[in-house]
Amino acid sequence: MMKTYLTRALGIALLALTTSCATPTGSGDVIPYTSSICIVTDNKLGSMGDPVVKVYGNQEVKFCCRPCVKEFEEDKERFLAKLRK
What is the CA radius of gyration of the chain? Predict the structure, then answer.
């Protein structure tokens, strides 16, 4: 009886933990990046291989390549301002 209770309690706890971690930001829905161009270089996404996808806060951002991620992270606000236009 006690073993069944503990097994169920553990199962519920694991379900709660995995469900609460489903959102990368933990604060709501992620806003999709809808442009087909890299936010840094304005190159077409996919022109340099598979796009790199990252989430900053609750905003998804797509890059044409890994070096663009580094450049973006050096001045996030400047590039994120492009999304607000």
Answer: 19
Distance CA 63, CA 74 (A): 14
Instruction: Please count the other Cβ atoms lying within 10 Å of the Cβ belonging to residue 76.
Output: 13
What is the rounded distance in angstroms from the CA atom of residue 40 to the CA atom of residue 65?
Answer: 10
Phi, psi (degrees; rounded to nearest 5) at 17: -65, -45
- Cα–Cα dist 20/32, whole Å: 20
Domain ranges for the chain: 2-83
Distances (CA, A) of 4 to 10, 16, 58: 10, 18, 40
Q: Would you say the pTM of this structure is higher than 0.70?
A: no
Structure confidence by residue, pLDDT tens digits, 4-59: 655 565 455 544 443 333 344 455 799 999 999 999 999 999 999 999 999 999 99
